[in-house]
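> call design_seq(struct)
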């Protein structure tokens, strides 16, 4: 049944199920609701199987939100519907069919920094002249990579680019050659042509290097998927059959390649395909990363029988805000859908709330920040709001970093993903100092940082004595510390203790650095120095530092898995390159309560009660038009529908429009007279454009007409700085897993360290070994399914679930084609996880043991008969105690009696008897499989099986009704205790001996 709160336009969009549909969804009009409700309508009312629905979004966050909405609307939690990002869609298709276009089996996807590092390491192979200056050979790597990405977004193959360069050489036409900006003044055509040849050759080599290293970049995921579907019509047909119903969110943000992928999936049925695209041309703000507003403008031409539905009922903002925003954005006419298609996009508020838009012109940047802080504190007190009801939305990361100190200095907690990521936090810089000391004792800046950090907290007077000794004796600071410990410098008692501890810790640090990987060197230092314990003892106060350390450890783990040399020296070199590449360790904004201080781009899709938009001055917002450092030749660009006015200005207006429409009750605009420099800053043209389009004049620092200004808060500074926000609350998880349940059962305090505080830990070789075997068997069975796919009717039916076998005796018996033992062992070698073994000998023993295990596994199944699985790594999600519970089942088979067998692989020592807690994991799987209809439809559960890989034995059982009731009660009780923040420790000697946090836990036995 459809939600009875849906408005007529939303209902019209949801019920249109035949033929293409363009939903023009203005800001705050409930587009996510419409997409989720449409999926539910297709499944529940139109009886379309969920597995035949594809919904594509742009970010993992949007995917998670969409999945949650769909899960709440469908009885089976939407398990079968494919909700994913464009890139994960491409990855899924290429992982299955990449060999068809010459891609490696197990490709790795590089992020921007990793791609930069790959080019930097292979720079000598590129035949570059202009684009590799002698004084700074890495200068153009970022520009080149962005250029290559734009090529792939436009589906320009290396061969096409090489041919274009060759044609330019032949005809001498240089009218639209790719150049570094402003560098073609007075240059000869011959030189310009040479640069084009340089770029085309570099593009070709870059792609070759990627494939040599079994890598793809993000743009490749769409580029090669389109290539595959164009060149292999049989494979295209498979996916057209799987997904006759396609929904695309944020369609205005698609690039040429992404739109081409959607058109391919709709190919041959343009008039009848169940294609719904949802977007708003006024919110197209990602042109800098290849998005083409032309796509949404072109849709009606590409699908001439498409229907348009416009959503204009806004559930977020007061009408004043909507009027200002709409009147302002009409300046982009005629390059808007409203003008081109004759639509009415004026938003009407459903909230009927009073709203205000105000402007101020403070004297300086610091006064602007102070004014924002005062406004937040006054409005929070007056309206009983939370910190997250406010947001400061900035045009650039630089402005974010300028605003933050004004808020934090007044005790206002902030949530930010500014220009300075976790690699620039104090905690991460302390770790870097430790690494530098491990590499070289005499790094005086590193010694100084650590001694003056919270780790050692050297008294100021002692620090001054050490500094004086360094100058007088011309020695390193480390030598001065030794002199202090030896009594040559008279230090205070606290200083003597501090420096002695420092020398002991750095000595151990140096010893570890000779043999241990960088990540273990750091962990040992954090533990030995007491830094981990200090952080864990005051988690609310140290929240940011703890999250920074966790992110740094994730980064180190990735370095360890990607590099054969994992020592401190190799890490420091890698880190140096990463910083050169522009890496700052940007992390997602945390979930704790605070005022978000974000760029407008990162605020897309969010909403707040009050929004502050600072730095509205000339050259800041709208920002200066910085065209691409290396532009594509116009002959190779596919976009044909180009704006008739200034494209950059129109994009900046859309960005301002997005910022305005994030607010529910109030927008506070500001632009200071002085941000440094000799002249007073000129106000942004957007201020005067707001005045002009809304027929108002600046009056008493307000853009709101005086007749509408009622009930306004009187803003005055609080008596003191507002310490209430200085300590932030640590939140509990919103999603749970069996791993969390098991950890809590072991010890709630251990759970707190691991899942609440996120204290970093080291991995273990046995876990790497187990993951290797799991991944190997998953890949092997995927290969088995592919080899027998013709018998199954389809390649696969649903996300996370491999294709079920079709037909009677084909579901597990008969002549099944199986890959060879050597292929199984080759998969093992290709998927080997090389991390966390405590010695080379230990690693070699595990590696040999793995081959023995797999040979035994192959022999057992060859003798007993192979089975085509119904599911591999089958994901599930359902509600428990009001929270999401997620898990993955290793393998699902059908037994000879037609019942279902749920299998979990174990690499530990086989057990002779199983307690209830031993059985709990598979009992949870049985509970899920009987609760979620998509799993329940497979059949009755006949067996739960732990398969012990070490010796090939199995422990089989099945849960009775009382077992499932006890399972539900146990899991629900634990989740409720976690939600109630009950982390009472339950220490015992065995648990504590195996606990990763034993050295920082005060309850250890």
């Amino acid at each position: 049944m459809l939600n009875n709160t849906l408005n007529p336009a939303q209902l019209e969009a949801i019920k249109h199920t035949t033929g293409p549909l363009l939903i023009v969804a203005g800001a705050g009009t409930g587009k996510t609701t419409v997409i989720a409700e449409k999926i539910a309508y297709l499944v529940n009312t139109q009886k379309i199987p969920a597995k035949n629905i594809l919904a594509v979004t742009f970010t993992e966050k949007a995917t998670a939100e969409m999945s949650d909405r769909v899960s709440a609307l469908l009885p089976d939690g939407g398990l079968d519907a494919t909700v994913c990002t464009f890139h994960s869609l491409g990855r899924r298709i290429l992982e299955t069919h990449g060999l068809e276009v010459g891609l490696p089996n197990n490709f790795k996807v590089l992020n921007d920094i990793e791609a930069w590092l790959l080019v930097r390491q292979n720079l000598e192979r590129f035949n570059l002249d202009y684009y590799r200056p002698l004084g700074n050979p890495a200068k153009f790597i970022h520009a080149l990579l962005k250029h290559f990405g734009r090529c792939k977004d436009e589906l320009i193959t290396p061969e096409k680019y090489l041919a274009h360069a060759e044609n330019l050489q032949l005809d001498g036409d240089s009218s639209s050659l790719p150049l570094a900006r402003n560098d073609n003044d007075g240059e000869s055509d011959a030189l310009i042509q040479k640069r084009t040849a340089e770029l085309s050759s570099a593009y070709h080599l870059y792609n070759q290097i990627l494939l040599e290293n079994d890598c793809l970049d993000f743009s490749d995921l769409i580029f090669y998927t389109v290539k595959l579907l164009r060149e292999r019509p049989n494979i295209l047909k498979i996916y057209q059959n799987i997904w006759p119903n396609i929904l695309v969110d944020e369609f205005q943000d698609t690039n040429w390649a992404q739109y081409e992928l959607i058109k391919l999936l709709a190919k041959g049925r343009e008039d009848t395909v169940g294609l719904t695209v949802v977007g708003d041309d006024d919110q197209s703000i990602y042109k800098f990363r290849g998005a083409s507003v032309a796509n949404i403008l072109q849709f009606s031409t590409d699908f001439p029988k498409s229907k348009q539905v416009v959503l204009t009922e806004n559930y977020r903002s007061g009408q004043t805000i909507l009027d200002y925003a709409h009147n302002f954005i009409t300046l982009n006419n005629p390059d808007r859908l409203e003008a081109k298609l004759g639509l009415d996009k004026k938003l009407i508020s459903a909230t009927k709330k009073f709203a205000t838009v105000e402007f101020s012109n403070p004297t300086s940047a610091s006064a602007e920040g102070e004014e924002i802080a005062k406004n937040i504190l006054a409005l929070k007190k007056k309206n009983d709001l939370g910190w997250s009801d406010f947001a400061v939305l900035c045009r650039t990361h630089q402005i974010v970093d300028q605003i933050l100190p004004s808020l934090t200095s007044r005790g206002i907690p902030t949530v930010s993903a500014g220009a300075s990521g976790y690699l620039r936090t104090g905690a991460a810089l302390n770790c870097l100092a430790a690494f530098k000391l491990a590499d070289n004792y005499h790094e005086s800046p590193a010694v100084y940082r650590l001694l003056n950090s919270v780790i050692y907290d050297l008294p100021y007077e002692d620090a001054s004595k050490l500094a004086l000794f360094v100058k007088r004796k011309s020695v390193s600071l480390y030598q001065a510390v030794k002199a202090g410990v030896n009594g040559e410098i008279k230090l205070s008692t606290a200083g003597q203790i501090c420096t002695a501890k420092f020398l002991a810790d750095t000595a151990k640090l140096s010893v570890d650095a000779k043999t241990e990987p960088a990540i273990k060197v750091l962990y040992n230092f954090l533990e030995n120095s007491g830094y981990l314990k200090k952080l864990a003892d005051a988690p609310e106060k140290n929240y940011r530092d703890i999250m920074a350390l966790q992110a740094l450890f994730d980064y180190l783990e990735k370095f360890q898995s990607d590099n054969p040399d994992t020592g401190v020296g190799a890490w420091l070199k890698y880190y140096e390159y990463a910083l050169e590449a522009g890496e700052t360790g940007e992390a997602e904004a945390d979930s704790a309560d605070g005022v978000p201080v974000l760029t407008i781009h990162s605020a897309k899709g969010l909403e707040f009660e009050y929004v502050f938009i600072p730095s509205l001055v000339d050259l800041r917002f709208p920002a200066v038009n910085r065209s691409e450092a290396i532009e594509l030749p116009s002959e190779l660009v596919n976009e044909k529908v180009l704006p008739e006015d200034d494209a950059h200005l129109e994009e900046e207006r859309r960005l301002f429009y997005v910022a305005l429409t994030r607010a529910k009750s109030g927008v506070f605009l500001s632009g200071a007279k002085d941000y440094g420099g000799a002249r007073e800053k000129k106000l942004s043209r957007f201020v005067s454009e707001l005045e002009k389009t809304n027929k108002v004049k600046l009056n008493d620092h307000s853009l709101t007409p005086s007749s509408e200004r009622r009930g306004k808060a009187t803003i005055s500074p609080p008596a003191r700085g507002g310490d209430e926000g200085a300590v932030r609350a640590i939140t509990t998880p919103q999603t749970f897993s069996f791993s969390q349940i098991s950890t809590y059962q072991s010890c709630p305090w251990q759970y707190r360290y691991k899942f609440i505080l996120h204290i970093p830990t080291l991995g273990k070789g046995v876990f790497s070994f187990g993951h290797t075997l799991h991944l190997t068997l998953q890949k092997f069975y995927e290969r088995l399914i592919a080899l027998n796919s013709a018998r199954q009717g389809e390649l696969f039916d649903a996300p996370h679930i491999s294709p079920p076998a079709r037909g009677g005796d084909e579901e597990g018996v008969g002549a099944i084609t199986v890959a060879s033992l050597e292929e199984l062992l080759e998969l093992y070698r290709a998927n080997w996880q090389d991390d966390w073994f405590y010695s080379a000998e230990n690693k070699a023993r595990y590696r040999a043991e793995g081959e023995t295990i797999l040979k035994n596994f192959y022999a057992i199944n060859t003798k007993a008969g192979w089975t085509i699985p119904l599911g591999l790594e089958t994901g599930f999600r359902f509600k428990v105690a009001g929270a999401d519970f997620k898990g993955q089942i290793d393998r699902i088979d059908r037994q000879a009696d037609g019942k279902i067998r749920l299998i979990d692989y174990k690499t530990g020592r086989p057990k002779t008897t199983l307690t209830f807690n031993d059985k709990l994991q598979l009992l949870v799987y049985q509970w899920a499989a009987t609760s979620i209809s998509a799993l329940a439809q497979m059949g009755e559960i006949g067996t739960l099986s732990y398969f012990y890989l070490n010796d090939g034995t199995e422990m089989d059982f099945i849960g009775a009704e009382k077992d499932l009731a006890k399972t539900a009660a146990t899991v629900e009780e634990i989740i409720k205790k976690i939600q109630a923040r009950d982390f009472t420790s339950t220490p015992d000697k065995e648990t504590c001996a195996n606990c990763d946090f034993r050295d920082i836990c005060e309850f250890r036995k």
